Amino acid sequence: MLNVMRENLKHLKWVLWIVAVSMVLYLGVYFTGSSRRGGADADWAAKVDGQTISTREFLEVARRMDEYYRKVLGAQYDQLKPQLQLGRQVIQQLVDEQLILAEARKLGLAASPSEISRQILADPQFHDANGRFVGRDKYAAVMERMWPGGVAAYERKVADEISIAKWRGLVTEPVEVSDVEVRDLYRSRSDKAAIDYVVVPSVKQQLSTKVSDAEVKAWYDAHKDGYRRGEGRRIRYAVVERQAQLPKVKVTDDDVKSFYEANRAQYDRPEQRRASHILFRVDKDAAPEAKEQARKQAEDALARLKRGEDFATLARTLSQDKASAEKGGDLGFFGRGQMVGPFDKAAFDTPVGELAPVVETDFGFHVLRVTDSRPAGVAPLDALRDGIRRQIEFQKAQQLVQSEAQRIRAEISAAKDLDAVARKEGLTVQEAAFTREEMPRDLGPSPEFADAVYALAAGSVGQPVGVAKGMAIVASIATVPPAVPPLQEIQDRVRTELLNARERDAALAEARKAFASQKDLASMAKALGQQVRNAADLAPGHSLPGAGRVPDLDRALFSPGTKVGDRGVVSAPAGAVIYSVTKRDTFDPAAFETSKPDLRSELLSQRRSAVLQSILEGVRQKHKVEINNELVNGLKA
């Protein structure tokens, strides 16, 4: 995982973009579970084909990722952290690892003992001061202390990482990038412009909102291609809802106990400590004077606490760990190995209620108090009973939905009458025409549903398919060829677009009038009741603050002959823009040749990541994945 993060963090903007894209692809399918199947106190973060990813593993990886991002991004981290969505990154990573392992095993991509040994021997954390391996005994001792399950568990993890790397390499190795693509990437970054500009908003135009039916039809006729839909399907369908099956579900105390006993391993809880800390941040490579100053601040804070001052109050005032400072320094419960080494040792060596000596880590100097502890053991049934009961209820309801849907589908096939069978079963039949881009709203997003419907021949009834509410039974009526929908079906949309276009045209006319009558941008802005804005480092395709993406401006700014001092007026989605070019950077062939290797590496990494996401999207459709949304969304790393 750290290797993946290191590669991604070479280019932060790419990190944020790929996170956003992968979340759209991934979370749209899998972040649809409910707290009925989990919750913040559950012992599982996700399940892949029934195999559990534990809360402990989720939190450990989240903490490592949090520490790594904080170290690499420094002062930017607190600002960027909400965009990174750590909880969702972590769960996606862990789920994808399970899916990739399953695919790797199918292909026989196992790690050999020699490969495992080579990876361990090459790991700097097992080297002494001279860069040599510390020896098997010391390595084993470290693993027994730091890794749950010791050497065997750690080496299984290493073997899994090797298998994952082999599979990734296999599927991404064919990906290449051309010289033209590398040049385009360089040009997109080096081809820059700066402008002063005025936005003339379309919403400020005082136009009548009355549009005649004839005007709407004329607009529709002139812009039909913009309303064209792809090939669709007309269907009739009924949904066997999960909620309707819940009253039929009976869960006894014996069911709960049996489930608990069968899954005791997932409720295993290691020894945990709870601590609060006050952090005085200093870089590990800082000058000795800076380190000494931070240490003195920590020692002074420790002395104040020993004199009786309130820990939470001091943490809120002094701590440079903003996330925990807001909670009076509280870090919550954590197990061995979840914190950085010196902090971890101090937390587990210090008695509950006591203050530890000042602790130095790579993050700076910590003052910490141990506030609580939990012994190792299996979480008691009473603490888990309600969650287990809800989990069993959901599973049984889902089984009922599946069996009911299969039974009803068989009756429909025999009777050849969807409506009659649905009435008998108390189901509502609905009819809809849809495309892959426009699903029936009551079904929610479901690629499986779309795939099933598009595979159906007209006049046939498909197998039940999962949707948000349960299982849908679908009868295909006809294929709907690509076509422009009739005006009466989309007339509200057409009317709105016509009004928007008129407002844009009015804004453009007003901007052109000011441009022609005033001598400079400031005078134009004053005449229009607007203000002059500035935009630096604009690249092709960038969004202009206050106006959005403006393709006409791109064409004007990045034409070969554009120079400083050029002015003009262009139409924009938000109205119109008057601009004046204040800076123009162009392609530099010599600088391009110098940057070419790094750009190729970056573009190849991006392309391979995108290909990997695309392949994983197909893999995910073949597996059952459950996510504990309450835990994941509530992560405060």
Total strands: the figure is 19
Widest sheet: strand ordering? 14-3-18-17
Q: Give the helix tally.
A: 24
Let me know the average pLDDT: 83
> Uncertain segments of ≥5 residues (pLDDT<50)?
1-37
Largest sheet: 4 strands, antiparallel
Give the N-terminus to C-terminus distance in angstroms.
17 Å
Q: Rg, please? A: 31 Å
Describe the protein's architecture and organization.
The protein is α+β, with helices and mostly antiparallel strands. It has four domains: 2-180 and 594-633, Porin chaperone SurA, peptide-binding domain (Triger factor/SurA peptide-binding fold); 192-228 and 490-586, no CATH class; 232-244 and 382-480, Chitinase A, domain 3 (Roll); 271-375, Chitinase A, domain 3 (Roll). It is built from 24 helices and 19 strands. The strands form six sheets. Strands 14-3-18-17 form a four-stranded antiparallel sheet, with helices on both faces. Strands 11-4-13-12 form a four-stranded antiparallel sheet. It has a four-stranded antiparallel sheet with strand order 7-6-9-8, sandwiched between helices. Mean pLDDT is 83; it is low at 1-37.
Q: Would you summarize the structure shown here?
A:
The protein has 24 helices and 19 strands.
